[in-house]
Structures are given as C-alpha cells and as structure tokens.
Amino acid sequence: MTPESLARIESSFSALKPRALDLTALFYEKLFAAHPGVRPLFPEDIKPQSKKLAHALATVVGSIRNLEAIVPVLHAMGERHVAYGTQPDHYGAVRDTLLEAMAELAGDLWTDDLHADWTAALNLVGETMLEGAARA
Questions:
Q1: Can you name the CATH fold of 3-135?
Q2: For residues 69 and 98, what is the distance between their CA atoms, to the nearest angstrom?
Q3: 2 touches 23 (CB < 8 A)
Q4: Percentage, residues of the chain above pLDDT 70
Q5: pTM, to two decimals
Q6: Residue 136 pLDDT
Q7: Stretch 28-41: mean pLDDT, rounded?
Q8: Cα(127)–Cα(112) distance, integer angstroms
Q9: What percent of the chain clears pLDDT 90, i.e. is strictly above it?
Q10: In a 3-state reduction of DSSP, which class is residue 136?
Q11: N or C: which end of the chain has fewer CB within 10 A?
Q12: Which residues of 90-118 are buried (b: 16+ CB within 10 A; e: fewer)?
C-alpha cells in the first residue's frame, strides 16, 4: 500500500470514527440481510459484537502503517473464528458488506480510490486471519 492510500484510509476512518457504532450496526444489518446463513454464528444481541468490531477496525487503522505489529492479534482472531463456525468464504462476504456500509455512511467522501484502498487493507486483514485459522 502506498503512503497516499494509507493516508486516505486514516483520513476516512477519522471521518467515520464518530459514527463507528452506526457503521457496525449498519454492517451487521446488511450482512444478515445479504447472507442470512451467517446469522446463527452471532449472538442474538449484536450490540456487544458491534462494539468489538468497531474496536477491531480502530486497532487495524491505528496500526495500518505497521501491520506486522498486529499479525499475532489477527492470527489469534482467525483461530477464534474457526471455533465460531466461520468459513473461508465468509471473509469475502464480510469485506464486501463492510465496504458497502462504509460507502453508505461516508457519502461523498467515498471514492473509487478509497474503495480500492480499503479493499486492499481488508484483504490483508482477512488473509492474515485465515493464516491463523489454518493453525486452529
């Protein structure tokens, strides 16, 4: 990722961060509508999970310039997700749904470049989590 793409990710997340819980709530609403088969993998009360996702996003963005530092955390998350029933194809659905929710909340701030930047970042996160999942 280029310094420009990293800066765009950081800037866009700064704009979205005050609405992080709105973002994660919208994400889960869209995820369950588009992929109802994943709903049983989550608790009935999705609010605590929404907070965890918001925190995870903040952690990733806060480490975006040194992702190697959070590789162990992402590996551990991937390992845990196996126990929850997460399948490898779920990662793409999560990525695409999160991008859709981010674009909706970001409005005019969302650009093709920003979409590509976030896609690359989320792909890297997903690939790293899948490495952890393979160890489980």
A1: Globin-like (1.10.490)
A2: 23
A3: no
A4: 100
A5: 0.92
A6: 80
A7: 95
A8: 22
A9: 93
A10: coil
A11: C
A12: bbeebbbbbbbbbeebbeeebeeebeebb
